[in-house]
Write a structure and sequence with these properties.
Elements (H helix, E strand, L loop, with lengths): L1 H16 L51 H8 L18 H7 L8 H16 L12 H5 L7 H10 L14
Length: 173
């Protein structure tokens, strides 16, 4: 009687563990909620050095605490965001930066093209994967062949003589 009870307990434990959710890796749409990537958090409020030198408020205009993603990207890439004026051409000091970042061409509809290519890729990969008995990680299954092994890549670079001062963390086994 003891063995069947252990088997029932083992089956129950496996069944309960299969109920866990992997929501971050579930590539199906879970609803019609907002897109979290469209929300830009404001900069923190700060006290100005001189209240008399503040600009005149413009209703509907920009605020000092509004974020400017384009200027922040220029600053992150080493450019001068203060030289970035809407409608103005690229400052001469930043021409090299723009040339280097667009050396392979700039495709205006890159997001739409990538979304269409990814949808076609997912459609091809899902043909046999619609039937499932237990919850599985679809993201890992579909993109498994596109995943890099960081240890193999690091070893290949070191063997080629490339300095790799930072390496991936050790495998947890």
């Amino acid at each position: 009687m003891r063995i069947p009870l252990a088997i029932i307990g083992l089956i129950g434990a496996v069944a309960v563990s299969g109920c866990s959710q992997k929501e971050l890796r579930d590539i199906r749409s879970t609803g019609t909620g907002p897109d979290e990537f469209l929300i830009l958090p404001p900069k923190p409020l700060s006290e100005p050095a001189d209240y008399a030198a503040l600009p005149v408020p413009t209703p509907g205009g920009s605020n000092l605490t509004d974020s400017n993603p384009q200027a922040e990207a220029v600053a992150a890439l080493g450019g001068k965001p203060e030289a970035l004026v809407p409608g103005q051409s690229i400052p001469t000091g930043d021409a090299g930066l723009v040339t280097a970042s667009s050396r392979y061409g700039v495709q205006q509809d890159v997001r739409q093209v990538l979304a269409a290519e990814d949808a076609a890729f997912l459609k091809r990969r899902r043909r046999g994967g619609r039937i499932k008995i237990a919850p599985v990680d679809r993201y890992e299954q579909i993109y498994e062949k596109q995943t890099l092994d960081p240890f193999a890549v690091n070893a290949a670079f070191r063997q080629a003589g490339v300095a790799t001062p930072s390496a991936p963390p050790l495998r947890e086994e």
